[in-house]
Amino acid sequence: MDLQEFLLSAELDNYYNDLRDKLRVTTVGHIKYVEDEDLVGIGMTKPEIRRLRQFFKKACPQGAFGKLRKILGKGDSGATSPPALNNSDKPSLITRSSSANRHIIAEDSLSIQKVIGNGEFGVVQQGMWTNERGEKIPVAVKCLAKDKLKTQMTDFLVEAANMCSVDHPHIIQLYGVVLSSDSLMLVTEFAPMRTLLDCLKDKLLGPTFGIPLLCDLALQVADGMAYLENRRLIHRDLAARNILMFAKDKVC
């Protein structure tokens, strides 16, 4: 449903031009960012604003968004960025931040470089995130495909909310979430060595994974899974293809 059709169904189509031209609202999804005082500024009455909100909730259920925004913090203004890289500048050695540091990321702060795989919800890309301090941090960007926005958005946001609640050296760290009108993205740590399965299948690298190293990696995985269990969370798809290598002796 486009914006004009939406407003017509809410019997508020007389505000279409003002919403578009004065408030820069061009899609139905943009309505969630508009404050009541802005709507009053274009002449809407309180009953009309209530009607707009009611119709918007029906057209775009916000339960999952609301839960996620509460966890991440309201917008970018009060959020803090993740810590800088240490002196070695190795992504695998980034100091892990507290849950208070996870926040909503502006889409224009991301630079996508290439596709590195496919996940449950859509494509996974490698990129560079420029945080508020101007630091460039290598990241992996998990994107929810546009054709799945309606059917899997809630599951995607639930995964994001769960990732926000964990902080463990062997669980992938979420830096933030991109919430735009036509896409959703999870921005996480980037694993430079790909997956454990990729490493084991590599003709040159695979044979160097001896029994002691594999046992140590297995202990790291078990430590991470025990942490999730203590938080009443289940991984659901634990496999070598989903274990990320940050260094030869460190997995997430």
Can you characterise this structure?
The chain has 8 helices and 8 strands. With 252 residues, the chain is α+β, with helices and mostly antiparallel strands. The chain has 3 domains: 3-60; 64-189, Phosphorylase Kinase, domain 1 (2-Layer Sandwich); 196-251, no CATH class. Helix 5 (63-72) runs parallel beside helix 6 (149-164). The protein starts with a helix and ends with a strand. The model is unreliable at 74-101 (pLDDT under 50).
Order of helices and strands: HHHHHEEEEHEEHHEE
Task: Identify the overall geometry.
Answer: elongated
CATH topology of the largest domain: Phosphorylase Kinase, domain 1
Q: How many helical stretches?
A: 8
Parts with pLDDT < 50 across at least 5 consecutive residues: 74-101
Beginning-to-end CA distance, first to last residue? 41 Å
Query: Could you estimate the helical fraction of the residues in percent?
Result: 25-40%
- The biggest beta sheet, please? 6 strands, mixed
What is the C-level CATH assignment of the largest domain? Alpha Beta
Radius of gyration: 21 Å
Number-wise, the strands total 8
Q: Which descriptors would you attach to this protein?
A:
two-stranded antiparallel ribbon, 8 strands, alpha+beta, six-stranded mixed beta sheet, 252 residues, Phosphorylase Kinase, domain 1
Could you outline the blueprint of secondary structure elements for this entry?
Blueprint: H1 3-9, H2 16-21, H3 36-41, H4 46-59, H5 63-72, E1 103-104, E2 110-118, E3 123-130, E4 136-144, H6 149-164, E5 174-179, E6 184-189, H7 196-201, H8 211-230, E7 245-247, E8 250-251
Parallel strand pairs: 1-5
Antiparallel strand pairs: 2-3, 3-4, 4-6, 5-6, 7-8
